Amino acid sequence: MLDVIINKMTIHELDLVKDREKCAENVFPVTNLSETVTEFFVNHISEARVGRSTKNCHFIAEDTWLSSKVNQYKEQNTEGDFLRLSQKIAERLFSTMKSSSSRSSGSFFVIEALIDGEEFIALIKLDPKTRIQFDAVNLSLSIQENILPDAKEKIHKCALIRTDITSEQLIHLYVLDKQQNQGEVSKFFMKTFLESQELVNDSILTKEALKRVKSEFVKIVPENKKFEMLDAIENEFAEGRNVDLQTSLPRVLERFGFEDAFIEESSNNLISQFITSNAEFQSSFTVVRTDISIKFQSTNNEIFFRYNKSIRDGVSIGKDAEGNTVIKIDKKYNLDLKSN
């Protein structure tokens, strides 16, 4: 467990249904926090700092709106300055949410905290169904049914922003966003509101390259060759393989008998699109795969088919002469059809 000390806190209510935000009028007296509520916030701040779902990010520019406001606050660091900072942040988040597809109301906390001795501004938006309840009259926080919340309690969004960013630090903020459906950080929170992006690593390069290669390369083969193309891409981008798109992409296309000129043009076009989509993207990386399954689904989502990559040699998918999808599974897997 990290050493987390909460120094200041403000609480705001963001109501998208009634189209209004209620900003804090005072800094919340953290001395009023019960041990249980304190543990709730400490647990979640710790999770946002070192959890598996945390994204290490940096601001897209030196003078983004949020980084500038945090820098200005750092110079004064008074309780009044903290209140004004938190109000501006809450208003901006509410405005950003209104202009996005988000319709999730809830409590929004701005916290000044020390994490292992380093100062952060923590932004936490709770699930509206959370058991943490705010009493605006008595300025207190409580937990419904007196049940101890834990790390599974839903936090919609959380960002930990360093207040003292040096030129040597690549990570400016840590972002945690547990989307209910997508399982990924939402664009409006990370990109639009925080004006940040995840630091590029092999895992990100693998994911983005695979998505782009699959999308583009299946378009250039006949319908009855699409599954074969996907299989060729999977083989080329195997876990742990050192990939250079300059050689890997032509190697995939060569299996389909394309002319050299077409292979070169198609590969170069895709590489150009890939590396220009993000200034930090590069064409060489080590493949890091987190997906363990291969998935297919029908156009209208009536049918889903998924199998573990470890049995790829025992599963084949293709098209017959009439365009029907044909799935062949090796008998050694003893596939049984079961109905509920």
Describe the 3D structure.
- This protein has 340 residues and is an alpha+beta fold.
- It is built from eight helices and 16 strands.
- Strand 15 (315-319) and strand 16 (325-329) form a beta hairpin.
- Helix 2 (65-76) packs antiparallel against helix 3.
- The longest helix is centred in the N-terminal third of the chain and has 20 residues, at 79-98.
- It is elongated, with a radius of gyration of 25 Å.
- Mean pLDDT is 84; it is low at 145-153 and 180-185.
- Cα distance spanning the termini: 44 Å
* Biggest beta sheet attributes: 8 strands, antiparallel
Rg calc: 25 Å
Number of strands: 16
In DSSP terms (H or I, runs of 4 or more residues), the helix count works out at 8
Strand content: 25-35%
Helicity range: 25-40%
Q: Could you say which overall geometry the principal axes of the C-alpha atoms support? A: elongated
